[in-house]
Amino acid sequence: MDFAHYNNSGAVFAEELVNTKGSVSGNEYLPTVEEWQDFLTRFGVKGVSRLTVADVEEIKGFRDRIRDVFFADEEGAIKLLNDILSEVAATPQISNHDGHPWHLHYSSDDAPISHRVAAGAAMGLAVLIVEKGHERLGICAADDCFDVFVDTSRNKSKRYCNQTCCTKVNVAAHRARKKEAGTSS
Ligand SMILES: [Zn+2]
Fold it and tell me: What's the whole-model pTM score?
């Protein structure tokens, strides 16, 4: 995993990994192995051409545990992350493969792909918590959404998983205010 190239990208990977499953619907947004390959490639995971259905199932198991980290309190989140990191034997390695500058990988290249995915996501959240604080892990504030997010904004202002939820809530609040004021919308 090549997360050290990009600021906070390990944490963003964790966020996007969790949100590959609908938080309310339970829908799988990446229903095929090919879509998982595209998703993992986008985050620099190596060896995805050999990805199997069994690998995807293992990744989904780790996805549920990474999701739990977002819903846990600080102490719980740290315990969950440490459990994952020791289980997948995260092994930091310095690499400059494919012409990239020196950067960190969080597992050895011959580790199973699900372990490399879990190590990358868990390290991303671990670094974010250590450097910026546990409150940077969030759950969407919209009523009907439990998608997760990492707040990398400078002033810790993020409240919604995405712009769609933010707009939806703002429109609803605007309508409610109008109703209170006795005007029709
Ligand atoms: Zn949302």
Answer: 0.87
